[in-house]
Amino acid sequence: MADTKMLFCFFAIIICCCSVAMAQIPVDCCLSVMNQTLDKKLVADYYPQAKGCTLDATILVTRKGRKLCAPHDELWVQDVKKHVDHLKKLCKKQGYKGRRCFGVKHQ
Q1: In what order do the strands lie in the sheet with 67-71?
Q2: How far apart, in whole angstroms, are the C-alpha atoms of residue 105 and residue 107?
Q3: Domain boundaries, the chain
Q4: 72 phi and psi angles, rounded to 5 deg
Q5: Cβ 78 vs Cβ 70: under 8 Å
Q6: Which helix (H) or strand (E) holds 82?
Q7: Could you tell me the fold of the domain covering 2-101?
């Protein structure tokens, strides 16, 4: 019986420590977005900005790994996202080989 109580206390402490550690992870937010368009051929990936940020932005990742903040609702950003989705499908079929697939992450 004492072993069960000790084990329960041990797990409770571990859970508390993990939740405190997770709460202190900083969120990387865009402070501003680009005012100019970007050539879609330069972009290899994208993802939405975290929920806790003030700006509604899409993070565009270039083939060289540079991250750029773009306005989520702009038409050119939607066009870039469609291009990247098409590129990912194409590169997956080709085994991520070739110059066109440089910088594209494996799915």
Answers
A1: 43-48, 57-62, 67-71
A2: 6
A3: 2-101
A4: -60, -40
A5: no
A6: helix 75-93
A7: OB fold (Dihydrolipoamide Acetyltransferase, E2P) (2.40.50)
- Can you give the pLDDT of all 107 residues of the chain as single tens digits? 556 655 454 545 555 444 544 455 566 799 999 989 999 999 999 999 988 899 999 999 999 999 999 999 999 999 999 999 999 999 999 898 888 888 888 87
User: Which pair of structure tokens corresponds to residue 40?
Assistant: 């879609």
One-letter amino acid of 64: K
- Structural tokens at position 80: 């870039």
Two structure tokens written together for 21 = 């550690």
- Residue 88 in tokens: 């990912």
Kindly provide the residue ranges of all beta strands, DSSP E only, lying in 1-107, ordered along the sequence: 43-48, 57-62, 67-71
Distance (Å, whole) CA 49 – CA 24:
18
